[in-house]
Amino acid sequence: MHITVIGVGHVGLVSAAAFAKWGHQVVGYDDDASKIARMQAGEAWFYEPGLDELMAEGVEAARLSFTGDPDEALAEAEVVFVCVGTPPLPGGGPNLSYVEAVGRSVVEHARRDLLLVEKSTVPANTGKRLEQVIDREAERLGTAHRIEVASNPEFLKEGAAVQDTLHPDRVVYGTSSDWSRDLLRQVYAPLVAEDELPVVETDVPTAELIKHASNAFLATRISFINAVSQICDRVGADVRVVAEGMGHDVRIGHRFLQAGLGYGGSCFPKDVDAFAHLASQVGYDFGLLDEVREINVGQRRAVLDKLEGELWHLSGKTIAVLGAAFKPGTDDLRESPAVHLANDLADAGADVRVHDPVALGNLAEEQPHLGQAMTVEEALADAHAVVVATDWPEYVDITPEMYRDRLAYPIVIDARNIHDPEKMLAAGLHYYAMGRQSIIR
Ligand code: UGA
Q1: I need a labelling partner for 392 at 20 to 30 A (CA). Which of 49, 278, 405, 420 fits?
Q2: Which residues are known catalytic residues?
Q3: What is the atom index within ligand 1 of the atom nearest the CA of 156?
Q4: Alpha carbon distance 191, 23 (integer Å)
Q5: CATH number, domain containing residue 122
Q6: Would 208 be classed as within a structural domain?
Q7: pTM of the prediction?
Q8: Residue 334 covered by a domain
Q9: 111-133, pLDDT tens digit by residue?
């Protein structure tokens, strides 16, 4: 099939490369000329394991190309995926103006009947608004091509985006006619045949809602276990064992029950806000989601409390922050709990030194006021305390001796629960974890 992907961010670029792998003829379009130039040179513009290889495979097979020219992008398109950003607005809802702009542009540049598929995360009923825009624009321009709207949410995680896209748990699409459903069946046929995947075929608003409900539910799980971690600290229990004990119940499961500094990234914070906003717009008070957000911010407050408990005033203290990315495996800093924490520390007057294995370039660009350390050793040198803020695997190997020998005061706040508390305590460190106070006592 001839597929065009509009917007080559995390979702768009990985999806485009996967469609090409499944045998489709794919064009990636973006209005950012610098991104297009990098991808035409065969290089992804962001870090994602396995993506360069997947892109190279598509380009070599002449099934994947990139352009910044909308006419060229849509010349042969039968199915167009909208993968542009839907960033948060101050009121909590997402900014859908980029999605709308794609709708208008597609009408202008379409050369045949086509299906416009929302892959960007959008609130329920965005499809209806998009259809309205398309119909108006088609009338204005006098175009006769059939353009329908469908929803096909994406569930990939950054850092595992290639794996998640090539081997998803499920495929979900919502359509409003047999024609559009059959087109999406054809798009996913190679994947479904190979993996015998569950496919949920539904209407457009239901598909849109599946995405928001999934992300809000996962964020709720994380906040739930973080709230439990607070209780653990107060009653002397170990949250990791609590989560393990809960997770053996197959109705609960083990994943996304890791207590720590809370969730971040470009999706959960924005999508929880957007879902709460949609709920209030349609007259339902989804107070649970307000709590999910509060608990998430509260985890950072808990780290500051532990630091203040040890250091009294943070002003004038040097604090090493290990990790800047919102999770391991990515250089993405959007809504990163580590970056929020570093800023909270700086606001409290601390001299902050941030280390990250891959995200320091982005940090210098986006948060130039924060101090940086090129190595873990440099970050720790004579710092008054250290906070492990992102659970990068390389930090697991830091020994208690490394902390003890380098820090000015032996204070370690393990905000991602990566270390063995007994070893840390045995080495004489003032070690704090999240919800593991029983061991520490
Ligand atoms: C998330 C979802 O997991 C994907 O299914 C979805 O497609 C994506 O959003 C999206 O909407 O595009 P992502 O934001 O890449 O993916 O990252 P996650 O792996 O879900 O992690 C999100 C945050 O939660 C990270 O800050 C991570 O550290 C935190 N987290 C995750 C925890 O604090 N505890 C956990 O147990 C799991």
Answers
A1: 405
A2: 267
A3: 7
A4: 10
A5: 3.40.50.720
A6: no
A7: 0.95
A8: yes
A9: 999 999 999 999 999 999 999 99
